[in-house]
C-alpha cells in the first residue's frame, strides 16, 4: 500500500518536473503575475497629459495651469483652442481630462466672486478619471485656500485603516498569493488525469494494482506541495521586497492554505477527469479559474454583487482564502475570524474531492 | 506495360532531423512509375513517412533531387497528386459527405462536377449507405476508405498512401487493396506504404527501407529469390514447437526461425543442408529481408532463464465465463466463454469493432462486464480486482509508458506500483536492465528511445513483478522483424516457465505464435482452435494450404452468410 502510494507520488512529481507544459505552469504564471500585478496594474494615475482650454488668459488661469503642470503625475499640458479640438483630444486619447477656464475667470477671482473651473473627463476610463478628478480638486482647493483669508479649512479628515497610505501594492499583493496558488494548483491537477489519457498511459495505470484512492492521493500530493512552496516564496517576497506587512497568524495561514489547495485539487481533478486531452484540461481550467477569481472579491467586492451571486460566492474557495490572506497580511485578523473563513474551505475540499473521485471512477471505463 | 516516364524520381536524396541523429533517409534513389502498385515497405521508423512527405512537397530534402511529375516536389502541381496521410486526414466531426465536400472545395473541383464525382466515389468505396455518419464514428476500415475517397476527389496522377492498412483488419485491408489496384489499372502511379511484409509480396515493385536506407528496389520476387530453396518447415506438436524453435535458433546453420502454427518455419544459411524431417516451403519476402538484415536474433531468452517457475495448477490461468458487455443498446461482446490453461498462448482475433478489445479489456479489469465473470490466476475480476491485477502483466498496443520520464524512473514506478520494495526492487530493476541492455539509456527519456528499446522497456515494465499471466495488445505490429523475433523468443521462453499469455491482434504474424485462437466477430465468438485447425477447416480443393489470413477471412465470410440466411 505504502510502496504503491510512494511510487505513484514520486512518478507524479517527475511528471510535473519533466513535462515541459507542467513546468511552464509551475514557473510562468507566478512570474508573469508578480510582474504584472506588482508593476503594471498600478492603481495610481501617472504620466498623464491634461488639456487646458483657456478662454480667460488672465493671471489666475495661468497660475492654475502652472500648478497643474507642476503636479508630479502630469507630464504634459496640451493647449487647446476650441471645443472641437477638445473633443478630438479626448476622443483620440491624447488626454484624459481637459480643464476649461471661462472668460472672466481671473476677473472673478480677483473680485472675490465665486469662480468656476470646468473639467471634462474621458468617461471610458472611469476609474482613472475619478483619480485625476481627485488630483485636480486638490489643486483647486489649495489655490482657493491660499486666496481666501481663512487659514483653517473644514472638512472630513480621511483615515484609511489597514492601509493608511492607500498603497496599491498592499492591496494587490495579498491577493497575488491567492491567485498564484489558484493557477498553479488548478493547472497542475487539471493536467494530472488528462495527461495520462492523452499519452495513452491511462490503461496501463488502470491495469496496475494501484487502487483509485492511491492514484488520486498520488496525484494530489505534488500539486499541494508545489502550492505550499509557491505560496511560501511569494509570502517572503511580498513581505520583504514589497514591504507589505505580515501582521497575522502565519501558522493559521498555512492551515488555510492546505485546505484551499485540497479544495482546488478536487476541482482540478474534476476538470481532468472530464477531459480527454491536455488541451481540453487547459481550457477547462480557465473555465473554472476565471469565475473563481472574479467571484472571490479580488477584482470587485463581493458585497457589491447581486444577492444570488453573493450566495454563489460562498461556494467559491478563492473567496474564503482571499479573506484569510488579506486578513493575515494586513489586518492581524484574529484566529476565530480566520477560522470562520477556513472551515468553509474544509467543506468545499471534502465536496470537490468526493465528487472528483466519484467521477474518476465513473469515467474509468 | 509500364509507362516509361516515371511519376516521381528521387535521386541521392537524404534528409536529417537534427544534426546528431542518424539520417531519416540516407542517399535514396528510386522511381515511381505509373500503372504500377509500388510498395514502400519497412518497419516503423524506417523513413517511410518522411519519404512520402518529401514526395508530397510537405518537407524539403537536404541533399539530392526530388522530382514529382516533372518538377521539383515543392513546386509540383498539387492538384495532380493525391495524398492520404496516416493520421489527421479526416475531419472526425464532419460527416462522410461533408468530408468529401470539404476536400472537393479545397481541391477546387468545379461545383457542377461534385454530385457525379461523389456518387462515383461512394460507389467505389461502398460508403453510400453512410453518407450522413460522422467520420469519427466509422470503423477503421471505413475511415481509410473515406480517406482514400478524399484523396481521389480529383483523379490524381500520383497517389501517395501512408500506411493505409494500419488499424484495419485483414478483411477491410483486402478490400482497400482491391480498390487501389483498380486505380493502377487506370494508369495512376500508386505508392502504398506499409509495415506488413506480406503486403509487399503483392506489389509489382517494392522499395524496402530499413533505418533510412534502401535495402531493395524492384519487383519483390527479386529479393525473395535470394532466400529461395532455403526455407523449410518442421512440425512440432503442441508445446513441443517452442522447444523445437529454441533448438533451431541455437543451430549455427539456421539463419532465422519463427513459429507458424504448430510448425516451425526456418531459413538455412546459404549452402547449409536442412535438418532431417524438414519439409521445403516457398520463400517469402520476409525471409529474404531478415536474411539481408543478417538473420534472426540468436541465443535464448535471458528473461525466461531468470524468471520464476509459475507453479503447476489445475485451475485455468484465464477464464471467461459468459462474458457480456453492453454499452446502452449496443452489445460489444456477447457470451464470450473460454478457458486458457497454464502455459498457453491464447489469441483473440477479429476485425475492428468486433469485440475482441472489449473482451480483452474485461479480462484485464479495464471494463466491468455487464454479465458473466472473468478470472485471472483464479482471482475473480469482480470481487478481487486488485489481486487479479497483481497477477497480470500488461503491454498496450502503442508505447504507453511515461515518455517524459527517464527509463529508470519508469522502471521504478512500475516496480513500486506492483508492490516491489527495497532489495527486491533493486534486484528486479538490475535484472531488467541487464536482460534488455537498458544500461546506457537509464537516464534518457523513455519517449526518445529507439523503437526497439521502447518495445523492450514496455516488456520489462510488464514482467518486472513476474506475473503468472501476460496480456498483450498487438505487441509487435509495425516493429521490424528482428525486434519481433526477439520479443517472441522472450514470450516463448516465459511460456515454457508456465506463464500464460493472452494476445489480441489482427496481425497474422502474431496470431501464428498462438497455441489457440478465438475468433470474435460481431460480438460473438465464431471459432476456437489452434491456427492449424483453423487453417485446415478453411482448406478447399483449390486452396489446400490456406494462410491464417485466408482462414480468418473465410470464417468471417461464412459467419456473414449464415447471418444473412438467418
UniProtKB/TrEMBL annotation, chain A:
Top-level taxon in the UniProt lineage: Bacteria
Segments passing through the bilayer: 21-40, 167-188, 224-246, 252-274, 281-299, 338-360
Species name: Aliiruegeria lutimaris
Subcellular location: Cell membrane
Keywords: Cell membrane, Membrane, Transmembrane, Transmembrane helix, Transport
GO molecular function: ABC-type transporter activity
Chain ranges of the ABC transmembrane type-2 domain: 133-363
Membrane topology: Multi-pass membrane protein
Keyword Transmembrane helix: yes
Name of the featured protein: ABC-2 type transport system permease protein
Gene Ontology cellular component terms for the protein in this record: plasma membrane
Signal peptide segment: none
Similarity comment text for this entry: Belongs to the ABC-2 integral membrane protein family.
Automatic annotation (TrEMBL), chain B:
The ABC transporter domain, residue ranges: 8-236, 318-547
Taxonomy, superkingdom: Bacteria
Keywords: ATP-binding, Nucleotide-binding
GO molecular function, one term: ATP binding
Any Pfam family: ABC_tran
Family annotation (InterPro entries): AAA+_ATPase, ABC_transporter-like_ATP-bd, ABC_transporter-like_CS, P-loop_NTPase
PANTHER family linked: ABC TRANSPORTER G FAMILY MEMBER 20 ISOFORM X1 (PTHR43038:SF3), ATP-BINDING CASSETTE, SUB-FAMILY H, MEMBER 1 (PTHR43038)
UniProt-recorded name of the protein: ABC-2 type transport system ATP-binding protein
Organism of origin: Aliiruegeria lutimaris
Amino acid at each position: 500500500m505504502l510502496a504503491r502510494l510512494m511510487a505513484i507520488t514520486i512518478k507524479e512529481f517527475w511528471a510535473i518536473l519533466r513535462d515541459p507544459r507542467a513546468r511552464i505552469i509551475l514557473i510562468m504564471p507566478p512570474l508573469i503575475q508578480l510582474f504584472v500585478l506588482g508593476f503594471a496594474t498600478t492603481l495610481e494615475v501617472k504620466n498623464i497629459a491634461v488639456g487646458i482650454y483657456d478662454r480667460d488668459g488672465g493671471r489666475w488661469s495661468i497660475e492654475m495651469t502652472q500648478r497643474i503642470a507642476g503636479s508630479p503625475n502630469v507630464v504634459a499640458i496640451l493647449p487647446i483652442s476650441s471645443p472641437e479640438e477638445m473633443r478630438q483630444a479626448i476622443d483620440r486619447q491624447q488626454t484624459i481630462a481637459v480643464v476649461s477656464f471661462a472668460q472672466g475667470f481671473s476677473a472673478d477671482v480677483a473680485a472675490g466672486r465665486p469662480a468656476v473651473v470646468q473639467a471634462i473627463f474621458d468617461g471610458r476610463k472611469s476609474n482613472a478619471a475619478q483619480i485625476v478628478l481627485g488630483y485636480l480638486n486638490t489643486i483647486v482647493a489649495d489655490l482657493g485656500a491660499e486666496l481666501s483669508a481663512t487659514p483653517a479649512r473644514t472638512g472630513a479628515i480621511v483615515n484609511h485603516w489597514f492601509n493608511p497610505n492607500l498603497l496599491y501594492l498592499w492591496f494587490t499583493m495579498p491577493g497575488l498569493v491567492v491567485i498564484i496558488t489558484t493557477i498553479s494548483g488548478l493547472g497542475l491537477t487539471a493536467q494530472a488525469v488528462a495527461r495520462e489519457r492523452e499519452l495513452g498511459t491511462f490503461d496501463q495505470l488502470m491495469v496496475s494494482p494501484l487502487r483509485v484512492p492511491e492514484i488520486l492521493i498520488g496525484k494530489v500530493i505534488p500539486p499541494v506541495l508545489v502550492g505550499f512552496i509557491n505560496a511560501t516564496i511569494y509570502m517572503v517576497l511580498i513581505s520583504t521586497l514589497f514591504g507589505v506587512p505580515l501582521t497575522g497568524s502565519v501558522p493559521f495561514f498555512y492551515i488555510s492554505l492546505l485546505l484551499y489547495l485540497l479544495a482546488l485539487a478536487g476541482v482540478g481533478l474534476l476538470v481532468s477527469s472530464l477531459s480527454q486531452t491536455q488541451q481540453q484540461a487547459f481550457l477547462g481550467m480557465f473555465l473554472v479559474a476565471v469565475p473563481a477569481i472574479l467571484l472571490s472579491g479580488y477584482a470587485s467586492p463581493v458585497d457589491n454583487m447581486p444577492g444570488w451571486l453573493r450566495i454563489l460566492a460562498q461556494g467559491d474557495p478563492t473567496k474564503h482564502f482571499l479573506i484569510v490572506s488579506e486578513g493575515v497580511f494586513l489586518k492581524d485578523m484574529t484566529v476565530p475570524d480566520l477560522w470562520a473563513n477556513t472551515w468553509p474551505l474544509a467543506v468545499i475540499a471534502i465536496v470537490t474531492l468526493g465528487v472528483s473521485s466519484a467521477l474518476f471512477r465513473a469515467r474509468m471505463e | 506495360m509500364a509507362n516509361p516516364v516515371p511519376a516521381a524520381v528521387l535521386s541521392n536524396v537524404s534528409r536529417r532531423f537534427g544534426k546528431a541523429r542518424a539520417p531519416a533517409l540516407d542517399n535514396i534513389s528510386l522511381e515511381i512509375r505509373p500503372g504500377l502498385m509500388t510498395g514502400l515497405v519497412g518497419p516503423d521508423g524506417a523513413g517511410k513517412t518522411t519519404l512520402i512527405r518529401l514526395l508530397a512537397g510537405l518537407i524539403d530534402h537536404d541533399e539530392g533531387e526530388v522530382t514529382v511529375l516533372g518538377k521539383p516536389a515543392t513546386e509540383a502541381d498539387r492538384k495532380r497528386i493525391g495524398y492520404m496521410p496516416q493520421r489527421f486526414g479526416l475531419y472526425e466531426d464532419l460527416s462522410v459527405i461533408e468530408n468529401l465536400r470539404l476536400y472537393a472545395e479545397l481541391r477546387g473541383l468545379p461545383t457542377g462536377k461534385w454530385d457525379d464525382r461523389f456518387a462515383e466515389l461512394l460507389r467505389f468505396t461502398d460508403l453510400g449507405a453512410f453518407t450522413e455518419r460522422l467520420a469519427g464514428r466509422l470503423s477503421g476500415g471505413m475511415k481509410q476508405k473515406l480517406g482514400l475517397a478524399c484523396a481521389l476527389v480529383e483523379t490524381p496522377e500520383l497517389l501517395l498512401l501512408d500506411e493505409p492498412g494500419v488499424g484495419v483488419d485483414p478483411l477491410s485491408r483486402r478490400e482497400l487493396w482491391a480498390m487501389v489496384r483498380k486505380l493502377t489499372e487506370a494508369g495512376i502511379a500508386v505508392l502504398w506504404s506499409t509495415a506488413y511484409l506480406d503486403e509487399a509480396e503483392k506489389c509489382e515493385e517494392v522499395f524496402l527501407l530499413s533505418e533510412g536506407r534502401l535495402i531493395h528496389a524492384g519487383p519483390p520476387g527479386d529479393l525473395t529469390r535470394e532466400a529461395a530453396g532455403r526455407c523449410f518447415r518442421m512440425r512440432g506438436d503442441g508445446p513441443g514447437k517452442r522447444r523445437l524453435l529454441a533448438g533451431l535458433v541455437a543451430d549455427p546453420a539456421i539463419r532465422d526461425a519463427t513459429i507458424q502454427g504448430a510448425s516451425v518455419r526456418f531459413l538455412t544459411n546459404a549452402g547449409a543442408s536442412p535438418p532431417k524431417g524438414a519439409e521445403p516451403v516457398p520463400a517469402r519476402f520476409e525471409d529474404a529481408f531478415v536474411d539481408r538484415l543478417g538473420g534472426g536474433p540468436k541465443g535464448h531468452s535471458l528473461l525466461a532463464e531468470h524468471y520464476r517457475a509459475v507453479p503447476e495448477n489445475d485451475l485455468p490461468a484465464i477464464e471467461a465465463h459468459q462474458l457480456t458487455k453492453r454499452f446502452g443498446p449496443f452489445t460489444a461482446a456477447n457470451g464470450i466463454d473460454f478457458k486458457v490453461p497454464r502455459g498457453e498462448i491464447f489469441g483473440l482475433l477479429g476485425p475492428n469493432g468486433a469485440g475482441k478489445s472489449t473482451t480483452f479489456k474485461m479480462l484485464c479489469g479495464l471494463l466491468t462486464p455487464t454479465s458473466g465473470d472473468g478470472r485471472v490466476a483464479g482471482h475473480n475480476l469482480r470481487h478481487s480486482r486488485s489481486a487479479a491485477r497483481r497477477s497480470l502483466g500488461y503491454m498496450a498496443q502503442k508505447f504507453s509508458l511515461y515518455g517524459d520520464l527517464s527509463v529508470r524512473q519508469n522502471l521504478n514506478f512500475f516496480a513500486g506500483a506492483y508492490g516491489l520494495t527495497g532489495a527486491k526492487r533493486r534486484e528486479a530493476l538490475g535484472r531488467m536492465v541487464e536482460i534488455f541492455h537498458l544500461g546506457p539509456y537509464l537516464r534518457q527519456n523513455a519517449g526518445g528511445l529507439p523503437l526497439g528499446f521502447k518495445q523492450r522497456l514496455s516488456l520489462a515494465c510488464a514482467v518486472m513483478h513476474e506475473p503468472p499471466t501476460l496480456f498483450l495488445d498487438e505487441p509487435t505490429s509495425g516493429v521490424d522483424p528482428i525486434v519481433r523475433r526477439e520479443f517472441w523468443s522472450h514470450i516463448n521462453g516465459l511460456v515454457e516457465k508456465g506463464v500464460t499469455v493472452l494476445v489480441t491482434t489482427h496481425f497474422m504474424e502474431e496470431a501464428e505464435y498462438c497455441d489457440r485462437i478465438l475468433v470474435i466477430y460481431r460480438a460473438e465468438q465464431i471459432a476456437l482452435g489452434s491456427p492449424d485447425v483453423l487453417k485446415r477447416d478453411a482448406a478447399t480443393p483449390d486452396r489446400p494450404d490456406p494462410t491464417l489470413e485466408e482462414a480468418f477471412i473465410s470464417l468471417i465470410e461464412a459467419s456473414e452468410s449464415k447471418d444473412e440466411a438467418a
